[in-house]
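Morning run. Coffee first, then this:
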Amino acid sequence: MELFYHTPVRDVALEDIPEEHRDIAQALGLESYLALSLLCGGQNLYIPKREALERAARNREIRARFNGGNYRALASQYRLSERQIRKIVGQRE
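And here it is:
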């Protein structure tokens, strides 16, 4: 995305952003929002839920804490079923 910051941009004000997107522009900052518009403008953009983004990190943590037999304890700690823990432990990154 670094290339997009070097693209000359006319003075765009927050008021120029469609109202339904202003909260995103405010959260990201106007410069980042404009870079996003250059990267994805005109496309439908799907942004996964945070839970989905954090799942890989959670699974790495579960595999690191697995000691060969603590399925039940991990299931309780992470609020998952033992079956889910077994599946996660069996996966490779």
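The chain has two domains: 2-40, 50-90. Good start to the day.
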